[in-house]
Design brief:
This protein is α/β, with parallel strands linked by helices and 248 residues long. It is built from 9 helices and 7 strands.
Length: 248
Amino acid sequence: MTGRDRIPPGTEGRDHAEEAERAFFGRRKGKRLREAQEERLARLLPALRVALPPGGARLDPRTLFPGLDPDGVWLEIGFGGGEHLAAQARTHPKVGIIGAEPFVNGVAKLLRTIDEEALGNVRIRDEDVTALLDRLPDACLDRVYLLYPDPWPKRRQRKRRFVSEASLAEIARVLKDGGLFRFASDIDDYAGWTLARAARCPDLDWTAGRAADWRQPYPGWPGTRYEAKAIAAGRPPTYLEFARVPRT
């Protein structure tokens, strides 16, 4: 039995509205930035920003890390304050990591860590990730993370959830054979939503073999402050992992 056979009851239906145009994120900016944060945005972000090439050309993500010759390239979609991304960059200095986050306060927090720790293997897309995914070539990423995304809990809002059949197909397209897509959420409904849509993606296979595989964090998981708050509030997270099915 493969992962896609183990789908929680009640999640089989398809929401056709999810294919419509959606805004996946909320605010672009929160509280006013401090002077040091503004300075880092002006000084560091231009050199780290992932810009799309003109004319609709594809973007080879390895070219974003000159001098590194990365062992692989990972993408984190919606990195929040950048805690997980920075921890991975620290632990895997030979991996190039792209973080996509339109919330400027989160970008400012990550830039502080990059600056203070001289993390040279991080690049930032400070816009919605959809356009970036569209420009990436096939089979160019080794790993994609989507951690604690906004659940948009109200029924009328669910079309704004990032996970859809279309977005999963795009993630599968850019993953290398055997590459991993990792999704974590403390919202059971969103976990079920993701499983149901992943089950309809022929290019992704749920790697879980037992219940502990989705109840326990990933190997080397650093944790996040949001996760700690969720657990303290009685919302245990679900950790889902999908592998890219080898191309024939």
